[in-house]
Amino acid sequence: MKKIILIITSIFLILIVGCSNGEGPSVSITDNDIHTGTEGLSFKFGEKTPPPLVYATDNFPIGVEIKNKGAFDVQNGYLLLNIEEDLLELDQGNQRSKVDLEGKSLSNPEGDEEVFRFNVISRELGKVTETITTTMLATLCYKYQTDVNVDVCVDTDFYNTREIEKACDAKDESFTSGQGAPIAVTRIESKILEENEIIKPHFTIYLRNKGQGEVINQNSVDNACSASTIGDSQLNYLNVNVNLGDMQSQLTCKPNQIKLKDDAEIIRCTLDEGVDKSIQPYTTVLNIKLDYGYIETISKSVQIRENR
Question: pTM for the complete prediction?
Answer without folding.
Answer: 0.86
